[in-house]
């Protein structure tokens, strides 16, 4: 009877990481799907349309957006964040409509001093009102390799997902108990951690608005926010390290273009239409609890000082 030994885990992971990387590479093209919207030349599409680089200096940042607007979908983007001393910088990947009553789904990466972890800032705006922030410290280095960040948006819920690739050397240094923990966190179809960090459910039934009527574009940017981004604004941007550069690739959109019709076809989580009804299975719920128990650093649902009149109604259902 074959056994799964600790010695062959890194080899299996390496093969599976290759398969997952191949899957996420398919059909992504920035020339076709995106347009640089600001930055005066600081944003550049490279590698034949397969990647896009944004840069920030003391004079300006840069940004791009999707050419189409979407009403629901799954949006995947691989990103390598600003390395080294990234304090004061904010790298973003978010969805947003236009106007004062806009809807928005935020995925922002707040830089930090060298050696300190990046902070992921998430928020959901409906009809111009947000105040739904949750923040997390990343448990891996987001600057040494590309990792996939996903937003799954359907009429029932919004899911924030991270797919990160662990270096084989890191796995090799793990204790046996840590490798067993890895087994629980990893989906062994592809051996990459398809990890949900946040689920924001539709609670319109109790009076909480949910973004479901305004088409949104994917928008990405790199900009300076040293008045608040790093340690509450105490650490400022070190402009001697400029230009700061973040690189995006594998811009994959699987959604309903505004004005089009979309029909459900698939139940496979890596196939085209699973996002339309996607929810967490038991493993996904375990992963979500693990992230929130070990890496969440802020939750609007527990900030009673900020909301002395009481937190939002949906917090009581979480």
From TrEMBL:
What name appears for this protein in its UniProt entry?
Answer: Xyloglucan endotransglucosylase/hydrolase
The species this protein belongs to is Rehmannia glutinosa (Chinese foxglove)
Matching entries from PANTHER family are given as: XYLOGLUCAN ENDOTRANSGLUCOSYLASE/HYDROLASE PROTEIN 8-RELATED (PTHR31062)
The protein's PTM annotation reads: Contains at least one intrachain disulfide bond essential for its enzymatic activity.
Q: Which UniProt keywords apply?
A: Apoplast, Cell wall, Cell wall biogenesis/degradation, Disulfide bond, Glycoprotein, Glycosidase, Hydrolase, Secreted, Signal, Transferase
Gene3D superfamilies documented for this protein = 2.60.120.200
Q: Give the record's family classification.
A: Belongs to the glycosyl hydrolase 16 family.
What Enzyme Commission number(s) does the record list for this chain?
2.4.1.207
Instruction: Please describe what this protein does.
Output: Catalyzes xyloglucan endohydrolysis (XEH) and/or endotransglycosylation (XET). Cleaves and religates xyloglucan polymers, an essential constituent of the primary cell wall, and thereby participates in cell wall construction of growing tissues.
């Amino acid at each position: 009877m074959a056994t799964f030994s600790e010695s062959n885990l890194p080899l299996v992971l390496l093969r599976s990481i290759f398969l997952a990387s191949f899957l996420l590479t398919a059909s992504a093209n920035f020339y076709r799907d995106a347009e640089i919207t600001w930055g005066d030349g600081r944003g550049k599409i490279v590698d034949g349309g397969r990647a896009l680089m944004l840069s920030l200096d003391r004079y300006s940042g840069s940004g791009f957006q999707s050419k189409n607007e979407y009403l629901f979908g799954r949006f995947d983007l691989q990103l390598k964040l600003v390395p080294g001393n990234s304090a004061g910088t904010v790298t973003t990947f978010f969805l947003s409509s236009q106007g004062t009553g806009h809807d928005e789904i935020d995925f922002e990466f707040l830089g930090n001093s060298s050696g300190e972890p990046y902070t992921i800032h998430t928020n959901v705006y409906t009809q111009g009102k947000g105040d739904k922030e949750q923040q997390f410290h990343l448990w891996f280095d987001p600057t040494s390799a590309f990792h996939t960040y996903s937003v799954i948006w359907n009429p029932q819920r919004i899911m924030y997902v991270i797919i990160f690739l662990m270096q084989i050397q890191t796995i090799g240094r793990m204790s046996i108990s840590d490798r067993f923990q890895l087994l629980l966190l990893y989906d062994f179809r592809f051996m990459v951690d398809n990890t949900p960090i946040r689920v924001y459910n539709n609670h319109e039934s109790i009076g909480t608005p949910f973004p479901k009527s305004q088409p949104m574009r994917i928008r990405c940017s790199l900009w300076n926010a040293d008045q608040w981004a790093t340690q509450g604004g105490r650490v400022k941007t070190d402009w001697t390290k400029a230009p700061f550069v973040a690189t995006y690739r594998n811009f994959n959109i699987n959604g309903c273009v505004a004005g089009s019709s979309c029909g459900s076809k698939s139940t496979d989580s890596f196939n085209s239409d699973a996002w339309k009804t996607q929810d967490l299975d038991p493993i996904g719920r375990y992963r979500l609890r693990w992230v929130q128990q070990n890496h969440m650093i802020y939750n609007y649902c527990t900030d009673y000082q900020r909301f002395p009149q009481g937190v939002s109604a949906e917090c009581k259902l979480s």
